[in-house]
Amino acid sequence: MTKISEEMINNLEAKFFFEDLTSKYCRGLDRIDEYLLRSVFWQDAEVDIGIFSGSIVDFIPFIIETLNSSIRSSHSVSNFLFEIDNNFAVGEIYVHGVSSFFNEENVEIDGHVGGRYLTQYEKREEEWRMTKLRFIMDWNMNIESSALWNQGFCIGVRGEGDLSYSSLKSR
To answer: N- to C-terminal Cα distance for the chain?
Structure first.
């Protein structure tokens, strides 16, 4: 039987934090929550998502403006793979994103994208945060929306007006 070492426990704990940071990043995008987006990165972090490459300081206003030009978005993550070396780590996380927007003919389009986040993390003063996030696109497609919004569902909204903010204590 394998003995569980302190290093194994620390790595499991770190992986939990990495998954949590990624979920908070995606929630920050979908709810357009500036505070939440800033909270997952160190102030000197770098971001490269293809349509933007630069500092986290410049990324936040860019992505908020970009997201505000769309109708809605939803990001889902899976297949987490992490390698940890003391206070540094790297990860590969699969992501599927959907964003609805109006095209040039004013037709609502659902844009789907699949890819991976390549992430770097650093632990400073006992706290893990991202130091680098890069998006690698593996596929995408745009199709005319067939969404039905009048079927009695509770519809999510961007910002703190979303019902999740009243049920979750942490951002």
So the answer is: 40
